[in-house]
Amino acid sequence: MRRVVISGLAVAALAFASCGPPKGSHSDEGGFPELAKMPTTMAAPLGSIKHVFVVVMENHDWVDIHHSKSAPYINGTLLTQGAHAEHYTSPEAIHPSEPNYIWLEAGDNLGIRDNDDPAENYRTTRVHLTKQLEDAGISWRSYQEGISGTECPLRWRGKYAPKHNPMVFFDDVTDGRNPQSKKCIEHVRPYEELARDLAEDKVPQYVFVTPDLCHDMHDESGCESKDSVANGDRWLSRELPKIFASRVYKESGAVFVTWDESESDGAPPIGMIVMSPFAKPGYANAIPYTHSSLVRTVQEIFGVRPYMRNAAHAAPLTDLFAKFP
User: What is the tens place of the pLDDT at every residue in 111-167?
Assistant: First the structure.
C-alpha cells in the first residue's frame, strides 16, 4: 500500500503583491523596484541537488487528477515514488495561463493579466529567475515542444503557445523581441533535444519544460484523444522516465511537476509533485504553497539571492524532501 502522510504543519499566510501597474508599463518591477538595484549573490555552495527540472501542465484542479482513472501513471507511479502537496495553488485570482507562467519566472505576474504574445506583453526588467541564475553561473534552458529551434519562438506555431514559455517575455533573453536573437535560440530549444542532452551529459542545471497544447492537458481537439488528462498522463509516462534514467537525475536531480492554474475560478489546489532521489517516497502534506514557493525552492537549491519578489514571503517546498538541498 502507498504510504501517505498528511502533515498538519501550518505556515504564515502568504503575502501576495498587487496585480501591478497597467498594461504597457513594460519596465515594471512588479512593485519591487528595489530588486533592480540588488546584485545576484550566492548564499552557499550547491547542496545535494544540482539539477532542477520544472515540467508545467495545464488547467486542471488537483481533484481532477488525484485518483483519476485517466491518470494511472501520475497516481500509480509518481505519487507512490515521489512526494506531493495537497494544498499547492496558483497565486490567488491570477488567471489566465500567462500571468502564472510569468510568476514562475519572476515571482510576480508583473502586471500581466492576459495571454497576449511578447510583442504586447514584453518586459524590460532584468530581474527574473533565469537571469539571476545566469549571473551566478548556473546554466539554464527552456525546452518547448513544437518549436523549430531555428528562431526565437515569439509567436504561436501549431500546438506551441508563447504564453506557456515565460522566458520569451523578457527582453534581455530575446534581444528586444528579435526572432533571430542568438541568446534566445541558444536557451530556448525544441523539447526533442532534451533526451539527447541528457544522454550526452549536456543538460543544463535548470531546465524548464513545456509540453505542447495536447500533451500538457490543455487541448482536446486535434489531440490523441478527447480525454485531456489521459493525453497528458501518457505523455508524462513516456517522457519522465528519460529524465529518471539519466546520470544527473540519479546523482543530483529534482523534478517538479506542476500545473499552471486551476480550471475553476479562484485558487483551488493544483498539482505539485516532486520526484527526486532526495524526496520522501509516498509522502504528502497540507502546507499552503503557491508558485512563489516553487520559485523560492529553486533559489534555495541554487543558493541565489535576493529572493524573487513574492518568493521572499513563501514557504519553500523543503518538507517534501528527506534531504534538502
Answer: 999 999 999 999 999 999 999 999 999 999 999 999 999 999 999 999 999 999 999
Give the C-alpha separation, 64 to 62, whole Å: 5
Nearest partner of 205 among 44, 46, 77, judged by Cα: 46
Q: Which residues contact 21 (CB under 8 A, 6 or more apart)?
A: 28, 111
Question: CA 165 to CA 144: how far, in whole Å?
Answer: 7
Task: Please count the other Cβ atoms lying within 10 Å of the Cβ belonging to residue 150.
Answer: 10
Whole-angstrom Cα distance, residue 157 to residue 145? Answer: 10
Cite the DSSP H helix spans in the chain.
Answer: 62-65, 72-73, 79-81, 97-106, 118-121, 129-135, 171-174, 182-187, 193-199, 228-244, 247-252, 291-302
Which one, of 260, 255, 269, 270, lies nearest residue 320 by Cα?
255
Which domains does the chain carry? 33-320 (3.40.720.10)
The residue count for the chain: 325
Q: Could you tell me the pTM of the whole model?
A: 0.92
Judge whether 302 and 133 are in contact, CB under 8 Å.
yes
- CA distance linking residue 60 with residue 272, whole number of Å: 12
Residue appearing with cell numbers 514557504: 315
Q: What is the DSSP letter of 30?
A: T
